[in-house]
Write a structure and sequence with these properties.
Blueprint (H helix, E strand, L loop, with lengths): L2 H15 L2 E8 L3 H11 L4 H9 L5 H20 L8 E10 L3 E6 L5 E6 L2 E9 L2 H4 L1
Antiparallel strand pairs: 1-5, 2-5, 3-4
Helix pairs in contact: 3-4
Length: 135
């Protein structure tokens, strides 16, 4: 590895040490359904978001709740202290489409209809509230 690439890689690693995130790859739910649940908690305080997800009827909310708990655990591990209410918020929540399974379903007169089974990738990052953001 060249010196320039090594410096860039080290800078990326240092930047990741101050970011607190969790990723969930290849979730077998359509991105549209996952985005519906993600929009409910984007920008909210983490414990409020956990409450919203816990009492939501959507199937995707269970997966997002587990992912949010993982992001909180990552923050606690890197900062070596427990998360308190009002301290953390959901900074960014991205839902991207992943691979699509393509299947055929029998149709009338010998035809076949294509069924697309969609999946998605979810990236959730949390951050601490500063005094400017709390007001």
């Amino acid at each position: 590895m060249g010196a320039r690439k090594k410096l860039a890689a080290e800078a990326r690693k240092e930047a990741l040490k101050t970011q607190y995130f969790a990723k969930l790859n290849s979730v077998p739910t359509s991105p549209r359904k996952m985005r519906y649940v993600a929009d409910m908690i984007r920008g909210k305080e983490v414990f409020l978001a956990l409450g919203i997800l816990k009492f939501s009827n959507k199937e995707a909310s269970g997966r997002l709740e587990k992912l949010l708990r993982s992001a909180i655990a990552n923050w606690e591990l890197k900062n070596e202290r427990k998360a308190e209410a009002g301290l953390l918020y959901v900074k960014e929540l991205k839902v991207d489409s992943a691979t699509m399974l393509k299947r055929l379903r029998p149709a009338p007169q010998g035809r076949g209809y294509r069924v697309r089974k969609r999946s998605n990738h979810v990236t959730l990052s949390i951050d601490t509230l500063t005094t400017n953001e709390q007001n």
